[in-house]
Write a structure and sequence with these properties.
The chain is of the alpha/beta class and 397 residues long. It is 36% helix and 15% strand. Helix 2 (45-58) runs parallel beside helix 8 and helix 3 (69-79) crosses helix 7.
C-alpha cells in the first residue's frame, strides 16, 4: 500500500491546489484597464452594462449590482420589509450570511432541515417551520443545484411569504429549463473569486417586481433618491435629492462591474467545463462504496460551484478529520462547506441548540469539498482522484 504523505510518503501534488480558483484572461484584464483609463471608476456605465447582461442571462426584469453577496441578502431583507418580530426560514448548511441577514433587521432566523440526498433545504421541513410570524424563506442553491423551486414557490404563495433564492452558488443553473434568477421573488448572486464568474468581490439581486426593484436600488445608495416618484415633496432643482429610507453605501465600482461583464461573456463556457469535471468525479467516486455522491433532482440542470464528497464512516477506520488532514498532506486544498450555522457560538448564545436539524448535522460530520474550478485540467483532476483513492484505501476497514 502506498504510504500517505501525512506519514512521510510522497504527496500527489508537490504544490497545493485550492478547492476553487478564479480564471482571468486577457479580455478580463483589458476590460478593467479600459475602465481605469476612462472617466468613471464608479457610478458609471459599466454598472448598467453588467446588469443588462444579468437580466439577459437570468430572464429577470431587473438586476441590481451590489457590493457583495452578503449585501445582496441584506438588501433583500430590506426590500421584503423584514423587521423585529418576523421570522425568516433558511437552511443551516450554508454560509452564515443566509441567516445573518435576518438578524440585521431584528428578525429571527429559523432553520429547516435538509434533504440528506441532495443536501438542499427540504420543502417539507420548511412547511413545518412556518408560524404566524414567518415573513420570508431564504432557500439556498447549495453547491449550485437548484432547490425544489416549484414546491417552495407553492408553499410561499399559500402562506403569503416572500421567496428569496440564495443563488450565490448557482449562476448558470436552470430549473425545468428556466434560468435561476427569474423564478423567485428575489434571487441573490455572489461574484467572489471562487464562484463561477467573479467581480473580485460583488453581488447582485434579480427580481421581476417593480416595487422590490425600487427598494433594492434605494438600499444600495443610502436610501437616497433623485426619483421624484419616491420623494415626499417636489424637487427644488437639478441638484436635488432626498433620503427617504435608511440605506447603505453598497455600490459596486465600475472596475468590478467591468470584470464581471467580461466574465459573464464566458459563463456558458465556464458552465460546460464545470459539468464535465463533475461528471468525471461522479464516475470515479460512484465506484467507491466508502464515498457517497451528492444526488441531483431531475429538474436542476446544474452548474456546480462546489464538489463535495461524503464519507461513509461505517466503512472507514477513522473520522472526517483524519481524511481531511491526509488529503491536505497530499496537496489538496480541501475545505468543508458548511458548519451548521446555528452551531456557532454567537447563535448558541441566542438560544439555538444542537439537534434542530439532524440531517444537516449528520451531513456536516461527513463532508469534504475537493477542487472544482474552470481551469482545473483533466490531468490535475486525475491526480485529485488518485489522492482521494489513496487516502480512502489507507483508511478502509
Amino acid at each position: 500500500m502506498e504510504e500517505l504523505a501525512i506519514n512521510g510518503g510522497k504527496p500527489v501534488f508537490e504544490k497545493r491546489i485550492g478547492y476553487g480558483h478564479q480564471y482571468v484572461d486577457d479580455a478580463d484584464i483589458q476590460a478593467v484597464v479600459d475602465v481605469l483609463k476612462s472617466d468613471f471608476l464608479t457610478c458609471g456605465p459599466k454598472i448598467e452594462e453588467a446588469e443588462v447582461k444579468l437580466c439577459k442571462i437570468t430572464g429577470a426584469k431587473y438586476a441590481v449590482l451590489i457590493a457583495n453577496g452578503t449585501a445582496a441578502l441584506h438588501a433583500a431583507m430590506f426590500a421584503a420589509d423584514v423587521g423585529p418580530g418576523d421570522e425568516v426560514i433558511t437552511t443551516p448548511i450554508t454560509f452564515a450570511a443566509s441567516a445573518n441577514c435576518a438578524l440585521y433587521f431584528g428578525a429571527k432566523p429559523v432553520f429547516a432541515d435538509i434533504n440528506p440526498k441532495t443536501y438542499n433545504i427540504n420543502p417539507e421541513s420548511v412547511e413545518k417551520k412556518i408560524t404566524d410570524k414567518t415573513k420570508a424563506v431564504v432557500a439556498v442553491d447549495f453547491t449550485g443545484q437548484a432547490v425544489e423551486i416549484d414546491k417552495i414557490r407553492e408553499i410561499c404563495d399559500r402562506h403569503n411569504l416572500i421567496f428569496i433564492e440564495d443563488a450565490a452558488h448557482s449562476l448558470g443553473t436552470k430549473y425545468n429549463g428556466k434560468p435561476v434568477g427569474s423564478l423567485a421573488d428575489m434571487t441573490e448572486f455572489s461574484f467572489h473569486p471562487v464562484k463561477t464568474c467573479t467581480a473580485g468581490e460583488g453581488g447582485a439581486i434579480t427580481t421581476n417586481d417593480d416595487e422590490l426593484y425600487k427598494r433594492l436600488v434605494l438600499f444600495r445608495t443610502h436610501g437616497i433618491t433623485r426619483n421624484q416618484e419616491l420623494m415626499d415633496k417636489p424637487s427644488e432643482g437639478g441638484w436635488y435629492y432626498q433620503q427617504v429610507a435608511l440605506g447603505y453605501n453598497y455600490r459596486m465600482t465600475d472596475i468590478q462591474a467591468a470584470l464581471l461583464s467580461s466574465q459573464l461573456d464566458k459563463l456558458e463556457r465556464f458552465g460546460k467545463r464545470r459539468k464535465e469535471l463533475v461528471k468525471r468525479y461522479n464516475e470515479a467516486f460512484s465506484a467507491m462504496p466508502e464515498l457517497v455522491v451528492q444526488q441531483e433532482i431531475a429538474q436542476s440542470d446544474t452548474v456546480r460551484h462546489l464538489y463535495i464528497i461524503q464519507l461513509n464512516l461505517d466503512m472507514l477506520k477513522c473520522g472526517r478529520r483524519e481524511v481531511f488532514e491526509a488529503l491536505q498532506a497530499e496537496g489538496l486544498g480541501v475545505n468543508v462547506h458548511y458548519i451548521p450555522v446555528y452551531s456557532f457560538p454567537y447563535y448558541q448564545k441566542l438560544g439555538y441548540r444542537m439537534g434542530e436539524c439532524p440531517n444537516a448535522e449528520r451531513l456536516y460530520e461527513r463532508i469534504i469539498s475537493i477542487p472544482l474550478y474552470y481551469s482545473l485540467t483533466d490531468e490535475e483532476q486525475d491526480k485529485v482522484i488518485k489522492a482521494v483513492n489513496k487516502v480512502i484505501k489507507y483508511y478502509r476497514r
